[in-house]
Amino acid sequence: RISDVSRIYKIYAKRLEKLGIKKIEDFLFHIPFRYENFSLISKTGNAQAGEVVTIKGKVIEIKNGYLRRFRTIQKAKIEDETGIIDIIWFNQPFIPKSIKTGDFVSISGKVDLDRNRPIFKSPEYEVIESLNDTNTIHTGRLVPVYPQTWGVSSKWLRRQVNKILSENKNELYEYLPYSIIENLGLESYIEAIEQIHFPKDEISAKNAKKRLSFDELFLLQLSSLIKKREWESLSSKKPFSVEKFKKEIEFFLKSLPFDLTGAQDRVVKEIFSDLSSKRSMNRLLQGEVGSGKTVVSAIAMYLSYLNGYKSILMTPTEILAQQHYKTILKLLGSFEIKVNLVTGSKKPKDLTSANVLVGTHALLFKNLGIKNLGLVVIDEQQKFGVKQRAEIRKKGTNPNLLTMTATPIPRTVALTLYGNLSLSYLDEMPKGRKRVKTWLVPPVKRNNAYKWIGKQISENKDQTFIICPFIEESESMKTVKAATKEYERLKNDIFSNLRLDLLHGKMKAKEKEDILDKFRKGSIDILVATPVVEVGIDIPNATIMLIEEAQRFGLAQLHQLRGRVGRGDKDSYCLLFAGTTNPTSLKRLKSMETIYQGAELAELDLKLRGPGEIFGTMQHGIPELKIASFSDFDLIEKTRKEAEKIFPEIAKYPKLLEKIEIINAKEV
């Protein structure tokens, strides 16, 4: 731990943790996000106003001065053989203690004019041994600028990285096979670490980034392959019989009130193939909102029941758990399969008699008493941590694992993130599912949009969602429409003749369920909500989705919110209100009008805004890339091919294996 290294680090430990620095080596992977170019060296007599330059000289005067209202000014004069130049800083009274008269200094910054004389205002500085000293880290070169936090400046971080590199450089070692380095023209690992922090020039910085980006994705790909092999070697179990129950399965499928789509039929076959294997299933099912993932999981649960096994379905929220419980009960209840719901607010006494348990995290903390758990289904799996996913599997002995997500992830990225899983895609929507017409509404048409919504509700008995990004107005985001405030405004001023209610994540589970029941039964015309409705809410009569401050959402999340309407047989609509005039943001939102495939929107968002917009900053299980990007599809493809090529002989590379073990240890 960094707090054990020194007294200074102990003081800084909590601040550094915010930057992801918990151990000394983490400093080396705290990568600069840009560089200041202070590499142009000039003499004081040649300094021109507007230039960004570095000068080196001798301090002939330095002192603190005082301005009004207790503010201070620091003044210095620096001399070289061509003349003298003035330097000023503001409110940094410690500088005259750091720099003394007679010291040699290197100063970098933009040259200004003061009374027609060149002057530096608040430049970067450092004391040097002589005018010929080139070992500078804050001036006179490409200077790294780091992500920082309160009390931890780029300058302080620079000093730590430089010190760690100079003292521990010999402990760094090359772990990539030489053949890969040579074939791909990569820098050595040690050179890349040095040059990413203190590059000789822009080409060196680019080459260092190329090497470290490759490493990051390559190690991720190899780690997935190793996990897949480990799963296959440790997950033996008794195969489920499929052929034996062919008639029962056919009868069950005929009993469904709809025909399976071609995609559902294909995925069911993939799952049955896994279940009838001697190895436990480890499959990720990705599908659009409303593509029928729950039905597929119910079919797998039915096969589990026929084979004498029990099933668990775990979800991240109570709303989603209740939704799934009702769906599973409707599908399986008539076949004498007992389904129980387990959440923080609902705890049945007898869990042992249930054939299927549907619930939230509460399932992790219950002594379920299940001796023959055959199938674990985890919905919206990326919202659970690695430990949580592992914990639920411990409820049985090598049960089959089916994880599901509606988060649209480009396939190339999915293969990187979930290369240890078998992947299935529901890329076809059920018949009769209507496309949700989507419009980006300009501010001048806002009132007309409200009138149109009122007319749709009055004439067609339609129901509407209005989504706001936050529950309460944030002082730092005054322009964001808060759900509570917006609810009052809409209720009193815009839709005073209609029935409105409010739903947000801070409500108690019972309160949420009561509101949703009223909405389902048609007692509410308009539900104002936060994105808590993103998953798990199925209201067939809801036909309009209005999203405020749409630019604050990623396209993938907007697509999921849009999927909450259009679930019945009526025409449905999604209206996007944007609180921005930024042309790039508006163009991004405009893509929602023509693109209806989640994976395509996710890929577009990756290119335009980066992975945070897809995976979300609060989601677990998504590795945080320090330098590479999930939007670099070419590099992802290249690292996957290289990983697959070397994987059969990975035992020959112990240093590479050691590196992967370190990465895997961080996940647990």
Proportion of β residues? 15-25%
Mean model confidence by pLDDT: 87
- Widest sheet: strand ordering: 11-12-10-13-14-9-15
Please give the alpha-carbon distance between the first and last residues.
Answer: 17 Å
- Please tell me what the overall shape is: globular
Biggest sheet statistics? 7 strands, parallel
> What is the number of beta strands?
21
Query: Low-confidence runs (pLDDT<50, min 5 residues)?
Result: 475-480, 613-621
Question: Number of DSSP helices?
Answer: 21
Q: Helix content range of the residues, please?
A: 25-40%
Topology:
Layout: H1 7-18, E1 34-37, E2 52-66, E3 72-80, E4 83-90, H2 95-98, E5 104-114, E6 117-121, E7 124-128, E8 142-145, H3 154-168, H4 178-184, H5 189-197, H6 202-234, H7 246-255, H8 262-275, E9 282-287, H9 293-306, E10 310-314, H10 318-332, E11 339-342, E12 356-359, E13 373-379, H11 386-393, E14 400-405, H12 411-417, E15 422-426, E16 437-441, H13 446-460, E17 463-467, H14 483-494, E18 500-503, H15 509-520, E19 526-529, E20 542-547, H16 555-562, E21 573-577, H17 583-590, H18 598-609, H19 612-615, H20 633-646, H21 654-667
Parallel strand pairs: 4-6, 9-14, 9-15, 10-12, 10-13, 11-12, 13-14, 16-21, 17-19, 17-20, 18-19, 20-21
Antiparallel strand pairs: 1-8, 2-3, 2-5, 3-4, 5-6, 5-7
Helix pairs in contact: 5-6, 6-20, 6-21, 8-9, 9-10, 12-20, 16-18
